[in-house]
Amino acid sequence: MNLILKLISFTGLVLTIFPAVLVFTGTLSFDMHTTLMLVGMLLWFGTAPFWMKEKKL
Amino acid sequence: MGINKLLNRIEARLDATDEYEREPVPENKLKGWRAFLGMYAGEHTAGTEFVIGALFVAHGVSAVNLVLGLVVGNLLAVLSWAFLCAPVAVRTKLTLYWQLKKICGGNLAIIYNIVNAVMFCFLAGAMISVAATAVGLPFQIPMPGLDDWLPTSVGWIVTVFLVGTVITVVAIAGYDYVARFANISFPWMFLVFIAAALAVLPGLGVTSPSEFWTVAQERIWTGEPAPGLTQFTFWHVVFFSWFANMAMHIGMSDMSILRFAKKWQMGFSSAAGMFFGHFLAWMSSGILMAAAAGAVAPGLIAYNSAGVAGAICVVIAGWTTANPTIYRAGLAFQAVTPDWKRWKVTLFTGLVTTIIACFPALVMNLLDFVALYGLILMPMGAVILLDVIFFDKLNLVSNYAEKTGITFNWAAGLTWVLTLGLCLFINLYFGVEVFFLGLPGWFIAVLFYIVFSKLLQKKPESATQSV
Predict the structure, then answer these.
(1) ipTM score here?
(2) Nearest to B234 by CA among B405, B368, B364, B56
(3) Which CATH number does the domain housing residue B254 bear?
């Protein structure tokens, strides 16, 4: 279960940064970049809290 | 369940919170590297980074001066954490405030704590303001500009109070929650900073990495300050990035954090905050400001470059820094009001901070405020360093107030006041800007504290070695 959650979280991070790279290279529209970033954010915050439990100060 | 019963349970839960504010952290509560890396990275990739990077552009820093200045300044900041703050924190395992009480006595510690807490409130207030610029976007609330000092609308005040309330509630919930929030947010937040800057580069004329440096020099960090602002040089960038957190490292406030460290080398974990946070985030926000044609409202420039995710990033970035800052301010006030429970103190602190956040003057003059706040708290950091690490070697009595029972250590008090007085003199009569005063000020404080202690200390018969 943790592995699946981590994979979804990782996908969220990829969707946060990779669309911007594609905008930079001219292969993705700016609007699609902002939409994908939003999806990435939802994936990250929807899954990361469940497996990032051990790190606290 | 009746409402009174529920409230009683909540109060009992809050009162039970014990984070070793007033006693050394026990061995089994010490933390490893990951906790500190996450904490520092999250804390220094903050909402205010959106403002600081943009203000560097407004002050006409050139691209070369920015990059070199940030490398040198951030490195000096990391070394300050590792070699000054961390060794003291690991040795004493106390917060700054309780260590100060042992050295300075109750009355001087109270004065210092009030000043310290007020400074933290201002800092956290700036972060709440930054977050509010994003929260207000969907409601089309007019955002403050560079020239605004007073609240710009009722909508702005309502937005600030909304943000301040949420941040205060999270801070009340306890420090574990704060650190957890920062840990979870940081990886995503850091990527948003980078992605936002990357996505607006084509609009500035950068379509390949090889074009970046040319555009950076000609369209972003042009070396031309905005009308009415002073020109920043390499040395401004070095000293600002070194002393932006002067209160935390040289001023010893991060004893509150690093007292949980297993060894002093964990002070190097601050590099995560300085290089992933400050270095890249300040550069990114400079790019965003140039792409937004000079706009400074962080929520707006983030939304223009990364959409809704960018605006939410600004909110979260503000939270992750405001939370530990309100927590620190709460600790400072609590030392003054030992009969108050921590949650009540934090609630009070959050309210004061939120009121301060309503005034945009703070954010628009953030560089000067950050430099001033570090400078004001710095002399007591020098006092603590000398007292904990060097006083035995100098044949002076450490923790003098605790051992002699005095409530006001005049050696420390005079050091603090006269150092700041001398810094003010240097500023007024030699025209040295506030950004540069921390360095001579620290040496002045060291000299004063040794001299005054030699003159004023009377050896108590029961004097023992320091903690």
Answers:
(1) 0.93
(2) B56
(3) 1.10.4160.10
